[in-house]
Amino acid sequence: MTDARLPGDDKAAFVAAARSNDAARFALITEPYRRELQVHCYRMLANYEDAQDMTQETFLRVWNRRESFKGHAALRTWLYRIATNACLDFLEKRNDRTPVPAELPGTGSEVHYLQPYPDRMLPEDPQESVVARETIELAFIVAVQHLPPRQRAVFILRDALGWPAPKAADALDLTVASVTSALQRARVTMREQLPGRRLDWRRPATHELSDDERDVVRSYIDAHERNDIEGLTALLRDDLRFTMLPDPGTLVVTAEDAVDGWVSNGLFRRGYDDWRCIATTVNRMPAAALYLRAPDDPEYRLFTIAVLHIVDGEIAELTGFDATDKPWLDLPATL
């Protein structure tokens, strides 16, 4: 994306609003950037609630530093610089925002603070939507978390947003050589974390679900609502990777282990056998919101959201998230 969408008179209007201390006018000019800045913070932090907080922190900093914007750089660049540094300051203060080794030997690490991102909050700008899917999918977000914070910022600005090295260097107060070196190291880590995945993030990619994905979600929902463990199992790849967040120690890497765990925890037994589900999307990925009705309860209550990565008509990754008390998911609490 470029800054071409911001005409010179808008930049001038921003400067005028900053000088006049006109908060309403200032907000009117900056508010259109909120969604893309929040996505940027989410890529940095992998947590929707943290991203919301840091986006709000960004706008507070923008207002407090409004007089420092002289119009030499594009407004969008200036906003991203403030948002990036807000995220870096946040990460510097938190020691619980890095991946931790998985309890299952040989399975890498887990990102317990990962949260899904509701599609309704993605930017509406068509150009942003074109690149959004592969740089907002869970696998990408998790992989980015394995980068040190400043290296992470370089990678997102350069490879996810397509910024040239001098522009990224200016935003991070680094030299171009430092940015180039950090990007090279980041790309090595990303190749290790995403084996077999396309790594050309700036090449346009569709954000629409495929027919295969829609069919699998329908079959997944049907099996759940019919308490059909065999039908559910048939949808899974043998090397399924399953985890339930934010609970630690839930990662398994075979379909057999996943199903055994579901059954041993009571899936489809009394109390866990009256389901209604709705198809949805988060992170531009197919998902199913699962509603459970307890005995003697007249309503089905939102329980979890299952996010599916589907390969060749089979579920290769299933990430479950606790969906209770998450109004920002924009799902009905009951059915």
TrEMBL record:
Signal peptide: none annotated. SUPFAM superfamilies: NTF2-like (SSF54427), Sigma2 domain of RNA polymerase sigma factors (SSF88946), Sigma3 and sigma4 domains of RNA polymerase sigma factors (SSF88659). Keywords: Sigma factor, Transcription, Transcription regulation. Residues 140-189 form the RNA polymerase sigma factor 70 region 4 type domain. Residues 31-95 form the RNA polymerase sigma-70 region domain. One of its GO terms (biological process) is DNA-templated transcription initiation. InterPro entries: NTF2-like_dom_sf, RNA_pol_sigma-70-like, RNA_pol_sigma-70_dom, RNA_pol_sigma-G_actinobac, RNA_pol_sigma70_r2, RNA_pol_sigma70_r4_t2, RNA_pol_sigma_r2, RNA_pol_sigma_r3/r4-like. GO terms for molecular function: DNA binding; sigma factor activity. NCBIfam families: PRK08241.1, sigma70-ECF, SigX5. Interacts transiently with the RNA polymerase catalytic core formed by RpoA, RpoB, RpoC and RpoZ (2 alpha, 1 beta, 1 beta' and 1 omega subunit) to form the RNA polymerase holoenzyme that can initiate transcription. Belongs to the sigma-70 factor family. ECF subfamily. PANTHER family: ECF RNA POLYMERASE SIGMA FACTOR SIGG (PTHR43133:SF65), RNA POLYMERASE ECF-TYPE SIGMA FACTO (PTHR43133). This is RNA polymerase sigma factor. It comes from Planobispora takensis.
